[in-house]
Amino acid sequence: MENTDKYTILVVDDNQDAAYTVGMFLELKGYTVHTRYSGKGALEAVEKLSPDLVILDLAMPEMDGYETATLLRANHGTELPLVALSGYGQQQDMRKSSEVGFNAHLVKPVDFIALIDLLDSFLKKQ
């Protein structure tokens, strides 16, 4: 993808190493990346940063990714692409992520080629 630096991606994971790894990879690919480590942090960052896409872990303490996605959808409708990136990879997990408004669901460990293909597909629509 050309000119990826015009796209801002928010990576949210309570595992700071996981968030850092995904964030560094995306920065190397030319994206502007911000990381947060909680659902509350994600909600605040979306308001402040207006990212083009959010990559969100599901298993987080206090406010999990499902609740965070539900609140993001309530506040921002469907215009903000949400990608679940989680160790939860069962069919019921994917169904639930779709029901609360995620546009896609990737399973950890992340397949970086699949992630880039997914980002290209969402961000080229904008």
Helix and strand layout, with pairings?
Blueprint: E1 8-12, H1 16-28, E2 32-36, H2 39-49, E3 53-56, H3 65-76, E4 82-86, H4 91-100, E5 104-107, H5 112-123
In short:
The protein has 126 residues and is α/β, with parallel strands linked by helices. The protein has five helices and five strands. InterPro entries: Bact_response_regulator, CheY-like_superfamily, Sig_transdc_resp-reg_receiver.
Describe the structure.
This protein is of the alpha/beta class and 126 residues long. Helix content is 46%, strand content 18%. It has 5 helices and 5 strands, in the order E-H-E-H-E-H-E-H-E-H. The chain has a 5-stranded parallel beta sheet, with helices on both faces. Helix 2 runs parallel beside helix 3 (65-76). Residues 8-123 form the Response regulatory domain. Keywords: Phosphoprotein. This is Transcriptional regulatory protein WalR.
